[in-house]
Amino acid sequence: MSLVRVHNFSISLDGFGTGEGQTLEAPFGHAGSRLVEWAFETRTFRGMGLHGESAGSSGVDEAFASAWKPGIGAEVMGRNKFGPHRGPWEDHEWKGWWGGNPVFHTPVVVLTHHPRPVLEMEGGTTFHFVDAEPAAALAQARELAGGLDVRIGGGVTTVRAFLEADLIDHLHIVLVPIVLGRGERLWDSLEGLEQRFAIEATPSPSGVVHLILTRRAR
Amino acid sequence: MSLVRVHNFSISLDGFGTGEGQTLEAPFGHAGSRLVEWAFETRTFRGMGLHGESAGSSGVDEAFASAWKPGIGAEVMGRNKFGPHRGPWEDHEWKGWWGGNPVFHTPVVVLTHHPRPVLEMEGGTTFHFVDAEPAAALAQARELAGGLDVRIGGGVTTVRAFLEADLIDHLHIVLVPIVLGRGERLWDSLEGLEQRFAIEATPSPSGVVHLILTRRAR
């Protein structure tokens, strides 16, 4: 059975998955890179060629980070993960934060109220711009995934919308020991979530805590 | 040197240290006992005679729970930890949630805008009702503590006020894997707290995660 998974989704102690004030230069707003620095050190993220040339770590952070890709046939992401622009598309040259050969190498459904033609990138990534509610977007992603799992890639609003719709089977949260104070909160509107998920916590020597939420049998 | 310590302070995944709607029957409002159940299982809490007669656990939860008392000479608590009443005291028979022989066995400073005579209880607990800002309340508690440490006992508003005033040296938070959705948030107004504290996380087989925040050298 095809599962719906979230991986490497970092939040602060106060529950913010991103800061305030996203711009081209600051995808996470005032949070800067603080939410994702733990990942930059891992072999998986180093292997994407984004964060330096050294081999990267192979401990518990890497064990969790590396699970993001195997078995995934498509990703769904919110528009704010794709880029900092709002409203109708004005810059059609913008093709995401990831350069000409994005790290996904699968179809990616980008949720937006503003349609745009499919973007075919090098390396197998195709961006499909879709105006749909979570269930319909997931159906489309499942079709594109060819029987494999679907990853919900973020941002916060997108993950929360899929949790509200009870569409997520596996949720990997990384609790980063910082207090951001402002931004987008993950847990809002999810009162009682623990009734639907088993929750396991694993601390890392890097200082983060990995939380794995697994959907209970339905 | 006398330290200011917080122990066994439970919060939900979404950062609430208590629920909504405190009453005489529900000290934690809609949270019920869910934030403190981990503690009820420990030998320390069983030893207070509040939570059953069996011996209680002796694992990591107990290791942290038992640290609440040694070296403490006084506690400071907010009025809502002392009782559910608001405004001027109308029921002078109310002497706290803990019966005639409270678990503290030290002086306790209760923060309130409504003065009231000192309450001397069995077993060495005395409740001192004080209308003061954190720094002044702490000075009074330190005097009562006779050179020992002072515990900030809660609730959320009180712990947060002492953190804002940068008066806390040791903060033991227990992250309980539930999403409460509403109540009083601990982390609000504390952006950048990690710059003042070293933070260590230890998970427990009970499902909670113990967070120890230790004030960095000033």
From TrEMBL, chains A, B:
SUPFAM superfamilies: Dihydrofolate reductase-like (SSF53597)
GO annotation (BP), single: riboflavin biosynthetic process
GO MF annotation terms: 5-amino-6-(5-phosphoribosylamino)uracil reductase activity
Domain Bacterial bifunctional deaminase-reductase C-terminal: 8-190
InterPro entries, per database record: DHFR-like_dom_sf, RibDG_C, Riboflavin_Biosynth_HTPR
Protein name: Dihydrofolate reductase
